[in-house]
Amino acid sequence: MVVFRSLRRCSPFSSSLRRLEKLSSIRNARGLATRATTSKLNTGDNIPALGFGTFQDADAQEDAVNRCLKAGFRLIDTAQVYNVEREVGRGIKKSGVPREEIFLGTKLWCNTFHPEDVEAALEYSLQELDTSYVDLLMMHYPVVFARGEERFPRDSEGKMILGKTTYLDTWKAMEKLLKTGKVKALGVSNFSKGEIQTLLDQGSVWLRSQGIHVMQFSPLGNMNPFYRETGWSKDIAHTMERITESPLLLELGRKYNKTPVQMALAWGVNNGRSVIPKSVIDWQIEQNLEADFEMDEEDIERIKFMDKKARFNDPSADYQYRLYGDLEGIEGTRDGRTH
Ligand SMILES: NC(=O)c1ccc[n+]([C@@H]2O[C@H](COP(=O)([O-])OP(=O)(O)OC[C@H]3O[C@@H](n4cnc5c(N)ncnc54)[C@H](OP(=O)(O)O)[C@@H]3O)[C@@H](O)[C@H]2O)c1
């Protein structure tokens, strides 16, 4: 996921680096021997390197968000289509952590991308989240579905019905929301290099003056059972080892006294990105929070060369739209309806 209006950090598309703020150990704040790295956005806000994902397990999310905030997470990623925004809002309130201390991001879904629908879609999220603003608003995919109540509008044969507007129109409507104060930063998700370039070339002048910050979604890959079940990716997700079994991550984990999961998360952090692991289990939440530590350059490089070029999140066939067209990576399974 790419956050515009942000301080840049390395992305597949941008080599420009700016200041990565490394706060000193926050042992005092949350009793953990870990850093609390943030990147400074051009809005003036800081986006934490370690965040919390909320996809799936709707019934458990209110409690999970409450617990993750109490444990020390300050970045939460959610989306309209996850159907958990209400639970996320309740979890925030329950935690007692002041809203202004939390970086909260959500995503518009593809049936609300008509420019006339964008503001109402934001209002819907604000109501669900019970907040007056979001720190980040993203377009979930570059695919535009037909307008209307149906999140997954299909024809009589089950084929997705696409809308007539384009992601560029949607983006321009999103830019207008910045003036309302209800959105502090904008981003996109699941966009290819070319699609991002289109926004840069044809979006506003404002956009070209901004940098890019990258958030890694599904930072644990096929640890999420969803990828082993969905038609998009079940073949590849079953044949590929999980990161907990990775010989390299196990080896490096011994060096840093960390688990393979923590090594994978720390790799993202050391590359200047934000990572947003999801968990509803206390010990995992706490373990994930202790994944912000400095790694030696040679180890960062070794993990980089593990690149399997696999892609678990690829609903191209179902969405009737070729996603990630110009990005490297094995395409996910080409069939299977998921929603
Ligand atoms: N923009 C997009 O299109 C997009 C797509 C996918 C994901 N996302 C975002 O990214 C977030 C994270 O991705 P994800 O939910 O797909 O999966 P993930 O965070 O990569 O992995 C989650 C899985 O790993 C397990 N896990 C978490 N911490 C662990 C630990 N320390 N040790 C062992 N297992 C651990 C979880 O278990 P339990 O659940 O049982 O605790 C869950 O099964 C999402 O929640 C969502 O916010 C965005």
Explain what this protein looks like in three dimensions:
This protein is an alpha/beta fold and 339 residues long. It has a domain at 46-213: NADP-dependent oxidoreductase domain (TIM Barrel), CATH 3.20.20. It is 35% helix and 12% strand. It has 14 helices and eleven strands. The protein has helices at 27-30, 58-71, 85-95, 118-129, 167-177, 193-202, 205-208, 226-229, 234-239, 247-256, 260-270, 282-289, 297-304, 316-319, and strands at 2-6, 20-21, 38-40, 46-48, 52-53, 75-77, 103-108, 136-139, 186-188, 211-216, 274-275. The strands form two sheets. An eight-stranded mixed β-sheet has the order 5-6-7-8-9-1-10-11. Strands 2-3-4 form a three-stranded antiparallel β-sheet, with no helix packed on it. 44% of the residues are buried. Mean pLDDT is 89; it is low at 6-31. The structure holds NADP nicotinamide-adenine-dinucleotide phosphate. The site of NADP nicotinamide-adenine-dinucleotide phosphate (NAP) has 26 residues, from helix 12. Residues 55-200, 208-304 form the NADP-dependent oxidoreductase domain. The record marks 107 as: Lowers pKa of active site Tyr. InterPro entries: AKR, Aldo/ket_reductase_CS, NAD(P)_OxRdtase_dom_sf, NADP_OxRdtase_dom. Keywords: Oxidoreductase. GO terms for molecular function: oxidoreductase activity.
